[in-house]
Amino acid sequence: IRKRHCFGTEVHNLDAKVDSGKTVKLNSPLEKINSFSPQKPPGHCSRCCCSTKQGNSQESSNTIKKDHTGKSKIPKIYFGTRTHKQIAQITRELRRTAYSGVPMTILSSRDHTCVHPEVVGNFNRNEKCMELLDGKNGKSCYFYHGVHKISDQHTLQTFQGMCKAWDIEELVSLGKKLKACPYYTARELIQDADIIFCPYNYLLDAQIRESMDLNLKEQVVILDEAHNIEDCARESASYSVTEVQLRFARDELDSMVNNNIRKKDHEPLRAVCCSLINWLEANAEYLVERDYESACKIWSGNEMLLTLHKMGITTATFPILQGHFSAVLQKEEKISPIYGKEEAREVPVISASTQIMLKGLFMVLDYLFRQNSRFADDYKIAIQQTYSWTNQIDISDKNGLLVLPKNKKRSRQKTAVHVLNFWCLNPAVAFSDINGKVQTIVLTSGTLSPMKSFSSELGVTFTIQLEANHIIKNSQVWVGTIGSGPKGRNLCATFQNTETFEFQDEVGALLLSVCQTVSQGILCFLPSYKYLT
User: Fold this and answer.
1) What would the pLDDT profile of 246-260 be if each residue is shown by its tens digit?
2) DSSP assignments along 359-413, one per residue
3) Could you tell me which residue ranges the Helicase ATP-binding domain spans (predicted)?
4) CA distance 511 to 533
5) Rounded distance, CA 88 to CA 165, Å?
């Protein structure tokens, strides 16, 4: 049998887990992979747990878990890649295979899937969507109420003609046609989907996983183009908040406290915002100028822990704060029984923007305090100061009407903007959330080398690694440098030379010569966009 297997020609890492939680290495993974005959028609394989409900071996029967109803629970596949364009390419390829009818869904942001006119044109789509769902100002989302029309795989495939792998734009078009929200439809389809496509950050970002209700425990995670996930993981575990956002949240929490609405829960959260604002103000004068109209001061994660300790936020008190935050998000509360019957009443809650801000803050604090501050050294905390131009505050008369003298335009003023940043420097911080929970992690890429350092960066030991030969032969590649152009001028690409017309003309003539010589087109890389202008 020829060595053909499902891994193709790329580099793959695979972390296999067993029920005991210990990482094991398969005795001969390539032997198992290569035992599948390449001539065998597509269909259910006979060696894995998906072939029958019970499985064909003792090993497979032990792999399949049961849900609370006693039915066999087969793991879902979460396929993550960098962009939505790459997801479109993957689903297009899936459509060409024998598995094109496998139940699937694609997760994306409201930017790609929301079809409500009031939300599409709004800058803060997430907040506007949540306001409509809460029914504020007497408005609601009629698209959301139509989700049931296409929210199960059977209806989608049988009655809507989407029986093969589809793209997110097809779901959006169908949502517009049936007045059904594509964003929430895609989320509802997860329940019966065997494979879920999404960008990296949906799997790595704790906030997105929570908002999407993604439970990766005992699931299969495949990350394509994995050489990009380190930056994504660092960004997912980082957080930034402006002083303006903190002040807005403080004022809103202050209003809740003054109106005696869940005072015991809102008051500690207000104290957190007040402490951070006071700390920002106290350190604003010590910022060091870096660039034009930009200043910054940086602390280590352990230094920030000492600051938080002075604010009363410690390893012991943080779980209590988390409990208060969970309580203020509840839209209903139980009231004293009337005639022996317990009832619930609606309670005002903080705005969507304040909820999002506090969720991000609590996420990064959780990382800082987790496992005896294990990840504290992986963080840098910075206060940055920049400037922005804003309209001068308008003045109203005693009747509340805007006072604007004739022939006078609104003046603009330069305002200092302070941002509190929690920068995560280690991708293993975010990756630790999914490592150990999932059943299998598969990383694929053509450029993961060196694999040891890559594994170390993520904090994961991959027991199965495959590094295949490149599809292009050495005889098909020529690598060299060109010191001069067609006219004999030296191509010394220093900053001074690249600014001259002579150098630019020589490079242009060289490119023209190559284009005339090489058939089927060329691909040209430049160090920066500036060289094109």
Assistant:
1) 999 999 999 999 999
2) HHHHHHHHHHHHHHHTTGGGEEEEEEEEEEEEEPPPEE-TTS-EE--TT-PPPEE
3) 1-273
4) 16
5) 10
In whole angstroms, what is the distance from residue 427 CA to residue 371 CA? Answer: 17
What DSSP string describes 291-311? ETTEEEEEEEHHHHHHHHHHT
Per DSSP, the three-state class of 229 is helix
| 8 A C-beta contact, residue 186 and residue 172 | no
Write the pLDDT tens digit of every residue in 92-141.
999 999 999 999 999 999 999 999 998 988 888 888 898 888 877 778 89
- In the prediction, which pLDDT does 22 show? 37
Element (H, E) at 341: strand 341-346
Amino acid in position 176: K
504 phi and psi, to 5 degrees? Answer: -65, -40
**Cα dihedral sign, 109-115-118-122:** positive
Which pLDDT score, from 0 to 100, does residue 23 have?
A: 33
Cβ neighbours of residue 11 under 8 Å, at least 6 residues apart?
A: 444, 445, 446, 447, 448, 449, 451, 465, 466, 467, 468
Distance separating alpha carbons of residues 100 and 104, to the nearest angstrom? 9
DSSP β-bridge partners for residue 298: 382
Integer Cα distance of 527 and 529 in angstroms: 7
Distance of CA 88 to the CA centre of its chain: 18
Identify the segments of the chain with pLDDT beneath 50.
1-12, 14-44, 46-61, 396, 398-400
Q: Extract the runs of DSSP E, i.e. beta strands, from 50-199.
A: 65-66, 72-73, 77-81, 104-106, 195-199
Distance (Å, rounded) from C-alpha 262 to C-alpha 281? 29
Tell me which residue of 387, 396, 392, 390 sits closest to 409, measured CA to CA: 392
Q: How many CA atoms lie within 13 A of 454 on its CB side?
A: 17
